[in-house]
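Researcher: Last one for today. Full complex below.
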Amino acid sequence: MPLYRCVIPEGALTNNQRVEIAKAFTDVHCGASGAPRNFVHVVFLESTGATEIADTHGNGVITFETPYFIAGGNRGGRPPALKARILAGLLEKFSQIAKVPPEQVSGRISETPASWTMEAGKILPEPGKESAEWYQHAAVSG
Amino acid sequence: MVSFECTVQEGCIDEHLRPNIASSLETVCLDILGPESGPVNISWVVIQRGFGFRGGLPSTTSLVRGHIPDGCDDATRQRLLRTIGDTWCRLSGTSEHELVVAARDEGWSG
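Model: Here's the assembly. Have a good evening.
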């Protein structure tokens, strides 16, 4: 966690743009939340004309109306304003780097309780309850 | 019903291993959650090379995310996560540092 899935039209982004967006999303998320960088996952899914994407946990679909869509999945428990700031930052960076008008990009962040996810062999702590040991553990790459 | 979507990076989990991993995950789910929780559906999404990142760098991490029947207690859910993780790593030969496992309530709408 978090996982940001970017639905994009086929061939819409270059390799460099995908790398830049992945780094920018990591900056946005970690800058706002303080989470370790290694915990930020970004994937790009090419699908021209898509209007829906499967929910990250396989439960139904999320619908959208723009050519580009960011489906985020984060730990719950953060203030709504922080969640909104993260999403706004992602949308802004995506639009800038992909060179597409802001109205062509939309997104949504879903949240689940931290304890419903295990990463690197550890059950995730609630936001704000992370121990120093957890940050050290999170530094291992994968 | 139980459903898990396994998102893997291209080239990281050999295709011939996937049927055994899927059937083993199904067995784990039914053992821990009970046969009444089934059927268990396991699906795969392969992320193209150059399309998956972790910490802004190319990723080798797999994400096994799904939903389970509502009402699962914390101890059972965590046992499920850990057993899925152990099974995945044993059968795929990958490290726990390259794996995320998540099990959400079926009725959760967060």
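Chain A touches chain B at residues 1, 3, 15, 18-19, 22-23, 25-27, 36-46, 54, 56-59, 73, 76, 110-112, 115-121, 123, 140-142 (CB under 8 Å). The mean pLDDT of chain A is 89.
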